[in-house]
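Quick check before the chapter quiz. The format below is the same one you will see on the exam, so make sure you can read both the input and the output lines.
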Amino acid sequence: MKARSWTMKTIGTIATTAALAATILAAPAHAHEAHLGEIIEFANNFCPRNTLPTDGRELKINENSGLFALLGTSYGGDGLRTFRLPLISKTDDSGKNITTCIVTLGIFPSRSR
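Here is the expected output.
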């Protein structure tokens, strides 16, 4: 009887540990909550999820209305159907490219007073 109780307790502990590990591994790592339109530098050759490269590309307004509300046609586009992202290219001291990205899904920033 005692061995069975110990086994059930061990199984419960293992299940709890596995559930906790799965939660931690499944949760995305966030250093902070990104704001829509925020420009970030990323130490790799790609942009993270929910960002796009600042390569001047044209986006559809109806698919990116929040970002359009912030940028408008400051960087181009017709303002009716399209707008453009800023074109930013940077290099480090050794001449290697630094990836710059713009946040396309995040908190809509509020104005400071």
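If your answer matched, good. The chain has a mean pLDDT of 83.
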